[in-house]
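Why does residue order matter? Because the sequence determines the fold. Keep that principle in mind as you read this record.
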Amino acid sequence: MNTMTQDSSTGLWNNKNRKIFFWSILALAVILRCIRFATVPDGINQDEAMGAVDAWALSKYGTDRYGTFLPVHFTAWRYSQMSVLLAYCMVPFIKLFGFNTVTVRLPMVLISFGAVALVYLVGRKLFSERIALVAMLLTAVNPWQFMQSRWSLDCNLFPHIFLLGFYLLLLGLEKRRYLYLSMGFFGLTFYCYGIAAYSVTAFLFVFFIWCLWKHRLKFREGLLCALIFTVVALPEVIVLGINAVHFGRTISTPLFTMPYFPDSVRSADILLLNFSFAQLGKNAWALFSHVFLQLPDIFFNSIPAFGPLYHVSIPFVFVGIIVFTIQLFREKNIEKQTQMLALWGFLVTRIWVGLITYEVNINRVNIIFYPIILLCAYGIGLAVRKWKKLWPVVAAAYGISSILFFGTYFTTYAEESREYYNKDFMEAVAEADSLEEYESLYITGNLGWQFNRDATEILTQYVCKIDAQYYQGKSNVSNGRELPAYADRYHYIYPEQQAAELV
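Structure:
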């Protein structure tokens, strides 16, 4: 392991060149993610629209669209809820630059820029400068990291916030102030995605048991970490608790609201609450096929020809994981072994997430990709060290894959995104809503690629910029127009009901 963590301070890897490589890779990542940022994907996803409409309401009234004051968790679809942190990140951009697709997507792309740099910092801490730069370059051109940065899905914030906490945790093993700061960010992951409750908690518990056992941490330091983590995560934990026990009412405070969701069905997503061996097998296959074999996933998450990591990565990922695991158990230096265990735990607890979460797709298990990218870079480093002539072959394989991926994304995928991101529906609704001679709109759930009446309602609210208080019935003004009551103007119907409603 030690031979893999040493770089020559002269030649290609001297300090001056390292800085050039770092800033060049970061610039590449930024440029790629800014190209046609506002128009590809073309349109907006219904979950993205949901978070955006709630963020807009927060920016105006300090409530979500239902009127809940500073919610810890969004009611969203009523039967299915949504995490809040990404929407709160949208609020300052909406207040400064208005409510539009750019301001809705800006937080995610900015955070993704930072995550590219974080991968380098983590890689340098765990491995070497060379492997860190390889991991950074892999992240800059990585299909998963690129595609999730282009739209705003609440759960896609989770891996970035965890990665920041993880880096601070590594620093905190040497300087305790970073350790305590990391607990704050780990606590914030609870507001990114609900699975943090059974993944982040498990990761930290096992890691701190190890640190106490190996005297890398004093008990009072671990206790303070637990306290900081708990205080930050507690409001979301209470939300999860009152809904798990069917508490029956929302808890309001002067600072925020912890809502109860009587219609929620999200507990069905967790295997531990609905265990069956058949479902465990399905979960395991979904995890292995989507992450390690990179088989096709849903349109929003990957392009089948390239997968989330590029198919050329598969052997390097397996080599990296296997050799790293062997080195972990052979490592004699406790300080180094503790750092390695942190990355190994990062990976293993994410596999745990995939096994107990209902038939995961890429966005449900997104937290697994950063450790896999790091271990892929490690695997590449091992292969190139053993077969030096392999380096240009690997570089060419990734270079060609990247060129083909970005070429496909900005052409074929961009055109197809109009359908899956509901562009045609949005244009039709916007045009219909602008016709002042009609007092009522009748909108079916037909989006072309799916039939979903709930989705058409939230997309209509996004496109027509329906004011939260107008939606709640507290005002008859929306988007600068005086209109009939929301329920009288907007009718979301099934086609077979259309004739009866019109009569």
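The CA atoms of residues 73 and 84 lie 6 Å apart.
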